[in-house]
Design goal:
By secondary structure, the protein is an alpha/beta fold. The chain is about 55% helix and about 10% strand. The chain contains 28 helices and eleven strands. The strands form three sheets. Strands 8-7-9-10-11 form a five-stranded mixed β-sheet. The chain has a four-stranded mixed β-sheet with strand order 3-4-5-6, with helices on one face. A hairpin with a 5-residue loop joins strand 3 and strand 4. Helix 1 runs antiparallel to helix 12 and helix 5 packs across helix 16. The chain is elongated and about 110 Å long. The two termini are about 45 Å apart.
Amino acid sequence: MSILRHDVPASLVVFLIAVPLSLGIAMASGAPLAAGLIAAVVGGIVAGALGGSAVQVSGPAAGLSLVVVDLVHTYGWRATCMITLLAGAVQLVLGVFKAARAALAVSPAVIHGMLAAVGIIIALSQLHVVLGGSSQKSAVANVLELPGQIADLHGHKVAVGILTITVLALWTRLPRRIKVVPAPLAALATAAVTAWAFGWDVTRVDLSDSLGDWAFPVLPQGDWHLVVTSVLLVALLAGCESLLCSVAIDGMHGGRRVDLDQELTGQGVANMVTGALGGLPVAGVIVRSTANVQAGARTRWSAILHGVWVLVFALGFGWTITLIPLEALAALLVLIGVQMVNLGHIRKVHGHGEVPVYVVTMAAVILLGLAEGVLAGLALAALLALRRLTWVTVLKREDRDGRLNVTISGSLTFLGVPRLTHELRTIPAGTTVDLDLNIDFMDNGAFEAIHSWRLDHERMGGTVVIDELHDEWYALAASGARMFPAKSPPKAPDRWWLPWAHRRRDQQPAGLSADGTPECLLTTGAREYHRRTAPLVRPIFTELARKQQPSHLFITCADSRIMPSLITASGPGDLFTVRNIGNLVPRRGSEPNDDSVVAAIEYATQVLGVHTITVCGHSGCGAMAGVLSGGVQAGSLPGLRRWLRHGDHSLATFIETEGDRLHAGALDVLCRVNVQQQLENLRTYRKVDEQVRAGKLELVGLFFDIGSARVHMVPPLRPTLCVKPFDRRMVTSED
């Protein structure tokens, strides 16, 4: 049922696109036009049935036309078919041995640059046909001959070409009802009908040599090294294009994911069949595959049926092809070539700094040839990758106390020694240097450069303190220990959030005194922050130094176990925090007076313009235990007893809902009720209440269960308190 509902209509859409494109690609490849239809049939039926993608459509690909033209010119058509057959056998072997994923290691910039160059070459060569002439042997020759070709225009032929391009350009702007017919089919049909109706003198497509003189492929004659190179070139280019296309199509549908090895195997069998039958090389094609997905295809039956429809058309209605003007096909190819220069691909490679690879590949393919251009692009991509892997950055910053902080980042190899040596030699003699090595590899050449500089600097009266932030490459090399054979994996991050007492000795702040007093821990911890963390967060704080713009006012308990930034995954500048005993918000006009919390609320809502006020309580709160005991636990702490009076309303709400009978979990229940009551207390301030009612301010309650380290949402006493709750992905809702 799904096949009839989804795949059959999609197959008809792809069929209507495939026929004109297959004819045009065959023409651009210098092959018999029927070879394009054979490739479309085999690509649809064989590759569709045996491939690893559910919705990819295979057929003749414009990206391979440049290779086929050269092969036909060098070996002849029948020998080119044998090369296609052998290339399919190579793909089959690679698929059986599960080598498909290796093709994904090719830089996309090389593939995109190659396709853009092929598009330019196709457009230039077919432009001559549109103008009534014939294409030249190379792209450069086509450019040089273009002015003379324009001067010697052939009226009817040019008119057909311009008409075809006009229909293709305008078709996308027509109503959706009309656009059901694919633009290539509409353009060729319009050109054919117009040329027939007005009796224009145009060149007609000739199939007489395509269908009548079929013979089995023959072995290419010539240097066998070149033949093997041609076979591998067709196999790898067709395989890479198919695999990259299948990966791209995988992101467009929600069905079964592609099996790359099975896809390569299916492509191999399809190329063996199309080569034996006299067809063009087959590859996965992005245009037809995208149209297949957009038309609603669900399974491989859409690709298979599209091949069946092409076969039925070729056998039953092939005579209609002879009505198509050759200039119209050439115009279609011109537009296809232009569209192969994809601006979206250029933007992508620009974002990753790979424009040089794209440009070099494109230029080399146009000027030198396809194989040479691809090799040039791959070589440049490898050089750029090597450059990135060995690039060294040296940042220097002078502290207020006169110490010079130098951070070296990257992979330190002999290739980076010249830059490294130059930067280190600019450090003045006698300077105290903190040298931070944030590296993941160091070879002997880099070690010798740093070590020699260090000895010279200390000999001249300077001081060098080396700190390795990633792995102890320098320390190991200096001790003569055996070095790691390869780049080290990243270290587990320092557990900065652990209490001092829970850290390993090597994770504790350096320079603790014997008694480990808090004062020493704090001061040495601050020094550790300056040495390790400050350089990393300085750019953020430099930006925040201008002004603060927090989005939340966060009111929580002064309990040392509550870390707001940790339990909310927030960073500097996110939370405007108020901490007090019991996370209490005194009601407006209540006694005893406390203006500190009120001042923070006023400043946050009326000056900073926060969007949310969050009250966060926690389990086992000592303040709530004091409220529950009637202030007994406060003992001889008069200030604390007075402050806890602000929790009387929480106790009253607790008694109202739970009764005055205490039970095992009463304290944590009161802690939750206290959060709800503080949200109510916030509403006693007119400005806060007005902003909540206007939907400009959200009131949120959180409860941190210390034992389970979980954060829970606390529902408000009044539903209108929280207009938009906190992101529920980071909290656990209360039942």
